[in-house]
UniProtKB/TrEMBL annotation:
CDD domains: cupin_MtlR-like_N (cd06976). PROSITE patterns: HTH_ARAC_FAMILY_1 (PS00041), HTH_ARAC_FAMILY_2 (PS01124). Residues 183-281 form the HTH araC/xylS-type domain. This is Transcriptional regulator. The keyword Transcription applies. Keywords: DNA-binding, Transcription, Transcription regulation.
């Protein structure tokens, strides 16, 4: 998928943007921007794409996405039909002055911004100091707005359950021709992951030979295409397990797996849990 460069509209009365969103189709494509993005999903769930990482997101999750790191949140069909509640902050690394992050007192803030280049996710945040501070960034005015953002970054820096999302080998600086190929690959995969996708078919979508495609995809993403597809399938399965509208076996086939054994093995490899144990953890 080709990441589109998104320009965050400047505002002469604000040094950074902070807003509350209730529509699930805001910036609903793979994009990137120079500003660092902080997002808190108070209400909403679906599948997230950050760099080469694919996983489900849900209410209570907080994500910090670094400058020019491609990302995209695809809300579930259920959420597309209802109102969501998401808090989003965009800020330039040096909006507070180019020397601010080099002050010795700001070492922890500097470190968390550096880590954000690979994306940071913190799950299951409900009415804690982190989420309250994020909401205050949006609602406050004047110097308090900046102070609250600093508080958020400090909370993230000391959070023990923060997860790094993107692999070390991920390349965000694709050439234009590579972006077009990645766009074709992502688009086709997202539409057809619930079916069997042959290497010949996806290579044809990318306008490459099968051998060239395998080398290209592994070099650009750090993973094989089958690993990539399985991550999407398991991300979809996680979402359906939480929703509890189908049995585990039904979810297995709905997600694109041809047998329960391979689904069970793949699910455990990616999540570290069996499907049933994962589902029970959300009871």
């Amino acid at each position: 998928m080709k990441p589109h460069h998104l320009t965050i509209s400047p505002n002469s009365t604000r040094s950074f943007t902070a807003k509350r969103e209730i529509l699930p189709d805001i910036n609903s494509w793979w994009h990137y921007h120079e500003e660092i993005e902080l997002i808190y999903f108070k209400k909403g769930s679906g599948t997230q794409f950050v760099g080469d990482n694919i996983r489900n997101f849900k209410s209570g999750d907080v994500v910090l996405v670094g400058s020019n790191l491609p990302h995209y949140w695809q809300f579930s069909e259920r959420d597309k039909e209802s109102e969501i509640e998401v808090y989003v902050v965009h800020f330039n690394k040096n909006f507070w002055g180019k020397d601010f992050l080099y002050l010795p007192e700001n070492l922890e803030i500097s470190r968390v911004i550096e880590k954000s280049k690979r994306g940071i996710q913190i799950e299951d945040n409900f009415d804690n100091c982190l989420t309250k501070s994020i909401i205050q960034v949006i609602e406050s005015q004047g110097p308090k707005k900046i102070i609250n953002l600093i508080e958020v970054l400090l909370e993230i820096s000391k959070c023990m359950k923060a997860q790094i999302l993107v692999s070390l080998g991920f390349r965000a600086n694709f050439q234009e021709s590579e972006r077009d190929r990645m766009q074709a690959i992502y688009n086709y995969t997202l539409k057809n992951y619930s079916q069997k996708i042959s290497l010949d078919k996806i290579a044809n979508e990318a306008k490459m030979s099968r051998t060239s495609f395998c080398k290209f995809f592994k070099l650009r993403t750090g993973k094989t295409y089958s690993e990539f597809v399985n991550e999407i399938r398991i991300g979809n399965a996680c979402k359906m397990l939480i929703e509890k509208r189908m049995t585990v076996k039904e979810i297995c086939f709905e997600s694109g797996f041809l047998n329960f054994s391979s689904f069970h093995q793949c699910f455990k490899e990616i999540t570290g849990q069996t499907p049933l144990k994962y589902q029970k953890s959300y009871n």
